[in-house]
Amino acid sequence: MSISKIFKAFLASLTLCLILGLSACAKNQTQTKADQLKVVTTTDFYGEVARAVLGSHGKVTPIITSPSVDPHDYEPTTKTAKLVAKADLAVYNGLEYDSWIKKLGAKKYLTVASVTGAKIGQNEHLWYQPQTMSKLALTLAKEYGRLDPKHKQDYLANAKKYQAKLAPLTKMVAQIKANSQGQKVAVSEPVFDYSLEAMGYHITNKHFAMAAEEETDPSYTDIKKLQTAIKNKEIAFFVLNTQSDSKVITNMVKLCQEYKIPVVKVTETLPAHQNYVSWMKKQYQQVLTLQK
Fold it and tell me: According to the UniProt entry, where is the signal peptide (predicted)?
């Protein structure tokens, strides 16, 4: 055989090897992608912790990513239903806050309520409980580890990293509690209640707040009690959910301003361009500033 023919045969063999190698590589990449976990969460702030713990071993898709969308009222689209049906795990708050996701047929569900031990009838705003996200991170690590044992240790390590990011919030709550002296406060809705209680404050108008939460007018008695507390300066501050559009609450804020009662502003949903830690820090800082 001539040198030319030998060289051509060599090139042909090399080309075949490259083709087979690339094919095998592509196949392996496809298999790896297929093996990765698919996780959905109802809200973006739960999506944040789910993504932090999952790391590079899958994809997390939050369903609600706009601060203007109320999870109570969200109506799933066909696209959302397909997304959830394909998910290995769906994470939602529970306590009838975002229960619509239960109808969409995920392979497995995890409620944040089950992580915190909250029951139906209790305050649904679990993400304002200072320990919730830390507990959720660890629970997700264990859940991912069961679904994907090969990366179990990675998930646990990721959870610890996320928990470390929450440490400044724990410190802020402790600082506030040290100076709260069990003072009375009032709220527009029970959005921030878990945080206030952890800070050592006493919420005086829970009946009023629950009516506002349920989008019904508070009773005349509840309104008069709150007005009197504001006028007599019996509360340290008033907590306003700025996403509320109640005229009764708007009037209460005006009364607070008239009688020099500070107003702490919070939101129920994650504001645009913020993450969970920056969101909580901004709200906690308002309380810290008032104590100085």
Answer: 1-26
User: Who contacts 102 (Cβ-Cβ below 8 Å, separation ≥6)?
Assistant: 92, 109
d(CA 152, CA 255): 54
Q: Phi and psi for 262 in degrees, rounded to 5?
A: -60, 150
Pairing of strands 37-43, 89-92: parallel
pTM of the model: 0.88
Residue that is written with structure tokens 């994907």 in the block: 148
Distance CA 199, CA 176 (A): 6
Tokens 């969460």 correspond to 41
Residues in contact with 137: Cβ distance below 8 Å, sequence separation at least 6, in sequence order: 49, 52, 53, 159, 162, 163
Q: Using alpha carbons only, what angle is made at residue 207 by residues 203 and 210, rounded to the nearest 5 degrees? A: 95
Kindly list the structural domains of the chain, giving each domain's residue range(s) and its CATH number in brackets, ordered by start.
36-165 (3.40.50.1980), 181-291 (3.40.50.1980)
